[in-house]
Design goal:
The complex is a heterodimer of chains A (about 325) and B (about 350). The C terminus of chain A is likely disordered. Chain A contains 13 helices and twelve strands. Chain A has a domain of about 70 residues. Chain A has an eight-stranded mixed β-sheet, with helices on both faces. Chain A has a four-stranded antiparallel β-sheet with strand order 2-1-4-5, covered by helices on one side. Chain A is globular, with a radius of gyration of 21 Å. With about 325 residues, chain A is of the alpha/beta class. Chain A is about 35% helix and about 20% strand. Chain B has about 350 residues and is α/β, with parallel strands linked by helices. Chain B has one domain: 3-Layer(aba) Sandwich (Rossmann fold). In chain B, about 30% of the residues lie in helices and about 20% in strands. Chain B has an eight-stranded mixed β-sheet with strand order 6-7-8-3-9-10-12-11, with helices on both faces. A four-stranded antiparallel β-sheet of chain B has the order 2-1-4-5. In chain B, strand 4 and strand 5 form a beta hairpin. Chain B is globular. The termini of chain B are far apart. The interface between A and B is large, with 48 and 48 residues. Chain A: This is Peptide ABC transporter ATP-binding protein. Chain A: It is found in: Cell inner membrane. Chain A: Its main location: membrane. Chain A: Pfam families: ABC_tran (PF00005), oligo_HPY (PF08352).
């Protein structure tokens, strides 16, 4: 049994004009213990809504969740709010993109790390503070005994993200959801945080679901990748396999649209591949393949029949009518 | 009326243009400084300064792209805004096509504004939501008095829509009806309305999604070829910069630490900060074994920058001289200038001495 099994997850939102926004529409995936899985896609593809759904942070209404999210065999969607509270921050925790707004400006760093420990593990105030110092040491903050008494505004962006990671890992969660953890950071700080996450993963052993739009970050951190488009999973594969032989035209387009560092040296600074057009509106039920309106290979079949997720290569699934043919031709 | 190049005070830090290139550059920036006062206390006295830009010199030729790169707070956007005169520079000169624009009065500056367009990062906040696209585009044309009559105005607006590859009949729509990429096209059209020679792109593609970003990058490159535009491309995204630039200037804490043609900078960086910056970029190739230089610590505060070389607190190669002596930009290869004391050492002790090597 996998640590997390998401099956046919549907997160829909009722819109003020009476319509329905199908933010996530039938998503199925699983995460093994200790594994790092990346979910990539562009804005509005449903990757963040997926992460919020796992922790049941979607307000209902207007949100509406269906399907099942099994964590260690328990369906999170069937738990009471009280039971859910025992899981959040304890067994599953989350790191958000914006470290400035996710920390409470009027509480010291130590109080914020200690909050989860006192709530979930019943530590006393002094025990929690001692553990907070230990966590700050773990995430590589210098002078932790001094920093633990400081407030968020006294820390830089990179330091704040380290504090967020310390809070998330304080209760030894089995699953860590990182929603764009390095997007707001500068490259040199991003490199520090990515190194830290890799290092901590070996030491703590938590499984990580990494939500990102940055294919570079995916390549550096993830073991398995799920590509989402318009609320659906369009491809899933091991990271090397996905980058080496992407099967879905959308994944191929994404990889072609990213310039590579060093392109000026080997003379490959050609035009970037564009994906023409726009992401379709999620308010209408899409008939056929979700990518058909932008796909260079789309046919009548694509516009009418939605392609099923099929295994196109060992442990490599894609939702495309033509992916296999292309692979054979190539 | 115009100051010619010969009358500029010579600056030791100013990179001289490589010899043998004719004609004066389109834009020349000499020792530009922008210090923001810090007001504090009951009487609002000045207690210090943020040295956002502290002596920056560069030039841009006609039809050329120069990229300004660096991390947040390095002053790259301040350079862009200061040369657009969105606020007055503290010191230094900005010379556009032979004419100094840093000390012009607002009235005299207005006709010069036509020649420099600007595209900002966020296409959602840079368009007035209560103006239709045709009014958004007509505004700069009217302001600069370019249209002869209303028919000419309509024609110009329609041509701008063609230029940025938007349908002509979309001019009656409102900004909220467009996607992020389309709005950025409208912003580019506005920047082009005055028929400028130079466009300042301040993180113009940073907020866009991968596939849309590629569309806008391609559009900018096409426009540069069609219209002979020069671009000042301010960005933190090194892969995009490498893709579309001719030359790159790397900034750190308000100063340019290295300025070089693209191939030299990305192939053989001559400043330790450039080297670290390049090695920190995540590459979309799983398992690519790269030697990564992870810089320790954070960028120091521009209120109280470190003595000597501003990078010495984080530099893996720093030695005693770096703490006291501020390095000047020196030429290390044709067109490549770096401000680092390592280049005064004998080559065998200089870890950055290698040249551009071709990958095998």
């Amino acid at each position: 049994m996998a640590l997390l099994e998401v099956e046919n997850l549907q997160t829909h939102f009722r819109t003020p004009d009476g319509g329905v926004n199908r933010a996530v529409d039938g998503l199925t995936f699983s995460v093994e213990a200790g594994e790092t899985v990346a979910i990539v896609g562009e804005s509005g593809c449903g990757k963040s809504v997926t992460s919020m759904s796992i922790l049941r942070l979607i307000p209902e209404p207007p949100g509406q969740l269906a399907g099942s999210i099994r964590f260690e065999g328990r369906d999170l969607l069937k738990l009471s709010e009280r039971e859910m509270r025992d899981i959040r921050g304890n067994e599953i925790s989350m790191i958000f993109q914006e470290p400035m707004t996710s920390l409470n400006p009027v509480l010291s760093i130590g109080q914020q790390i200690g909050e989860a420990l006192r709530l979930h593990q019943g530590l006393s105030k002094s025990q929690a503070e001692a553990k907070a110092v230990e966590m700050l040491t773990l995430v590589g903050i210098p002078a932790p005994a001094k920093r633990v008494k400081e407030y968020p505004h006294q820390l830089s962006g990179g330091m704040r993200q380290r504090v967020m990671i310390a809070i998330a890992l304080a209760c030894n969660p089995k699953l860590l959801i990182a929603d764009e953890p390095t997007t707001a950071l500068d490259v040199t700080i991003q490199a520090q945080i990515l190194d830290l996450m890799r290092d901590l993963k070996h030491r703590v052993g938590a499984a990580i679901v990494l939500i990102t739009h940055d294919l570079g970050v995916v390549a550096e951190v993830a073991e398995r990748v799920i590509v989402m488009y318009a609320g659906r999973k369009v491809e899933e594969a091991r990271v090397e396999e996905l980058f080496r032989a992407p099967k879905h035209p959308y994944t191929q387009g994404l990889l072609g649209a990213v310039p590579k560092l060093g392109s000026s040296l080997d003379g490959t600074t050609e035009r970037l591949a564009e994906i023409p057009g726009l992401v379709p509106s999620l308010k209408q039920k899409i008939q056929g393949c979700v990518f058909a309106s932008r796909c260079p290979h789309a046919t009548e079949l694509c516009r009418e029949v939605p392609p099923a997720l099929e295994e196109k290569a060992p442990r490599h699934v894609a939702a495309c009518h033509y992916a296999v043919k292309e692979a054979v031709a190539a | 009326m115009s100051m010619t190049m010969g009358t500029h005070p010579a600056h030791a830090t100013a990179p001289k243009r490589p010899p043998g290139r004719g004609g004066r550059p389109l834009l020349e920036v000499n020792d530009l400084k922008k210090h923001f006062p810090i007001k504090a206390g009951f009487f609002g006295g000045t207690t210090g300064h943020v040295y956002a830009v502290d002596g920056v010199s560069f030039h841009i030729d006609k039809g050329e792209t120069l990229s300004l790169v660096g991390e947040s707070g390095c002053g790259k956007s301040t350079v862009g805004k200061a040369l657009l005169r969105l606020f007055p520079p503290t010191a230094g000169q900005v010379v556009l096509d032979g004419q100094r624009i840093d000390d012009l009065s607002q009235a005299k500056l207005r006709p010069m504004r036509r020649r420099v367009g600007v595209v900002f990062q966020d296409p959602f906040s840079s368009l007035n939501p209560r103006m239709r696209v045709k009014d958004l585009l007509a505004e700069p044309i009217r302001n600069f008095g370019l249209a002869k009559n209303s028919a000419d105005l309509d024609e110009r607006v329609a041509r701008l829509m063609d230029t940025v590859r938007l349908p002509r009949d979309a001019v009656n729509r409102w900004p909220h009806e467009f996607s992020g990429g389309q709005r950025q096209r409208i912003c580019i059209a506005r920047a082009l309305a005055g028929e400028p020679d130079l466009i300042v792109c301040d993180e113009a593609v940073s907020a866009l999604d991968v596939s849309v970003k590629a569309q806008i990058v391609n559009l900018l490159q096409d426009l540069q070829k069609e219209l002979g535009l020069a671009l000042l491309f301010i960005s933190h995204d090194l892969a995009i910069v490498e893709h579309m630039t001719h030359r790159v200037a790397v900034m750190y804490l308000g100063k340019i630490v290295e300025i070089a043609p693209r191939r030299e900078l990305f192939g053989a960086p001559k400043h330790p900060y450039t080297e670290a910056l390049l090695s920190a970029v995540p590459v979309p190739e799983p398992g690519s074994a790269r030697q990564r230089i992870v810089l320790t610590g954070d960028v120091p505060s521009p209120i109280n920058p470190p003595s000597g070389c501003r990078f010495h607190t984080r530099c893996p190669y720093a030695f005693d001289r770096c703490k006291v002596d501020e390095p000047k930009l020196q030429q290390t290869a044709p067109g490549q200038w770096a401000a680092c004391h390592l280049h005064d050492l004998p080559a065998e002790r200089n870890p950055l001495a290698r040249g551009v090597s071709m990958p095998v």
